[in-house]
Amino acid sequence: MSELTFPQGFLWGGALAANQSEGGYREGGKGLTTVDMIPHGPARMPVKLGLEKRFALREDEYYPSHQAIDFYHRYKEDIALMAEMGFTVFRTSIAWSRLYPNGDELTPNEQGIAFYRSVFEECRKYGIEPLVTLCHFDVPMHLVIEYGSWRNRKMVDFFARYARTCFEAFDGLVKYWLTFNEINILLHSPFSGAGLVFEADENHEQVKYQAAHHELVASALVTRIAHEVNAENQVGCMLAGGNFYPWSSKPEDVWAALEKDRENLFFIDVQARGAYPSYAARVFREKGVTIEMAPEDAEILRNTVDFVSFSYYASRCASAEMNEQNSSAANVVKSLTNPHVPRSDWGWGIDPLGLRITMNMMYDRYQKPLFLVENGLGARDELTADQQINDDYRISYLREHIRAMAQAIEDGVPVIGYTSWGCIDLVAASTGEMSKRYGFVYVDRDDLGGGTLARLRKKSFWWYKKVIASNGRDLD
Questions:
Q1: How far is it, in rounded angstroms, from Cα 128 to Cα 76?
Q2: pLDDT, tens digit (0-9, with 9 covering 90-100), for 187-244
Q3: Can you tell me the distance from the alpha carbon of 410 to that of 6, in angstroms, rounded to the nearest whole number?
Q4: Would you call 321 a catalytic residue per the annotation?
Q5: Burial, 106: exposed, middle or buried (Cβ in 10 Å; 0-12, 13-18, 19+)?
Q6: How many CB atoms lie within 10 A of CB 295?
Q7: FRET partner for 178 with CA separation of 20 to 30 A, picked from 50, 134, 169, 372?
Q8: Which CATH fold topology does 11-469 show?
């Protein structure tokens, strides 16, 4: 096998999200967001799914996002750690409600702009390119309560105003942008994905796909605005990636896997191709969905993204006989458990070859550069007596996935860069836990908010520093 190489200028780094790292949930003029209402504990999943309405905080519950890992106050320390590893890119997100606390104001909160300008200037100080997500699972709660969130067409204009503010305020500091994080997750986790709460007797599919349409129009509109503000801006979409394998060679299972892939890729089909895919008509008809479109929507949707970004943690399995009893509860995207791959502590299949398969499929389908913006292993880390964390399991996971990414590049897939997920331990979006750790940097924080928040370099910190310094050649 020839030596695997990465192109010159390949961007190496890591990723965080505002709602899982910043904390400071009411500081600097910030308004409440959807994630601020999602508790730790048994009520978490019903709230995330939009099945239990949460429009007010409760004193008897713990909300992990309210302090998270306190990136809001510690960002200089954290960015210095990234620079020490040699990052050339840092993916983060802007909390919409820091700039527009209610979401529908006409003018932004200057304190919020000043905070993010300082974050991006700190990145630039170290030669780190910011990669910024505009909406990473946080919608201002006022927009949920007053307008019904993305089920309402008015959200398109609110989001466009917010996005233009970002493009203009941070022009020259940020050139890589993502519109919606894991946009397909709104089908699987509607409240955390898009601020959707269902009323009694509603057709959930109608609500979700109408909201999806509004997000797709908003994404295309702000892609156009980004290019108008600065022609150098590069805008990407973002998919929760991972192909579905057929459970068997039975034709019904193969068809079930194809349908599951289409369900997730539908969003990117629109964002990367500029129009609804032909298969959507039958899907909508069979789900009883009628999309209300404005006359200008078809034209707006033609503003396609410059690149396709995605997360990859695991592949998935689908069968014609899938149901709630035989599907894994480890992730909101349901899957059968694949007996051919090992699983993480949280039941996610570990499948590096699946990454290469996914990347080849996506480039074949879209013919646009890819950017792997989330990849990592959630695991329980143990501190040794001398305060070390020997996370060889994380190194092994990342090593094999980086090798798979290199193979995809060798296959002819153009890739802009790689940002591992949770480069510093943060609150897990799925479970709200701190004990589900992803980072190269340990944060002294437990699942119920205890701990000093002190940062500690793990063994993987030094390993990743070596990977970056060698541009991916030294993975040992």
A1: 13
A2: 999 999 999 999 989 999 999 999 999 999 999 999 999 999 999 999 999 999 999 9
A3: 9
A4: no
A5: exposed
A6: 6
A7: 50
A8: TIM Barrel (3.20.20)
Domain boundaries, the chain: 11-469
CA distance 417 to 13: 8
First to last CA, the chain: 16
Question: Could you give the CA distance from residue 188 to residue 463 in angstroms, rounded to a whole number?
Answer: 35
Dihedral sign computed on CA atoms, order 239, 186, 39, 108: positive
Residues 119/159, Cβ–Cβ less than 8 Å: no
Q: 182, 215, 374, 433: which one is catalytic?
A: 374
| CA pair distance 209, 289, nearest whole angstrom | 7
What pLDDT, in 10s, does the model give residues 4-56?
789 999 999 999 999 999 999 999 999 999 999 999 999 999 999 999 999 99
Q: Are 315 and 361 in contact (CB under 8 A)?
A: no
Q: H-helix or E-strand containing 93?
A: strand 89-93
Tokens of 414: 């153009």
**386-418 confidence digits (pLDDT tens):** 999 999 999 999 999 999 999 999 999 999 999
3-state secondary structure of 167: helix
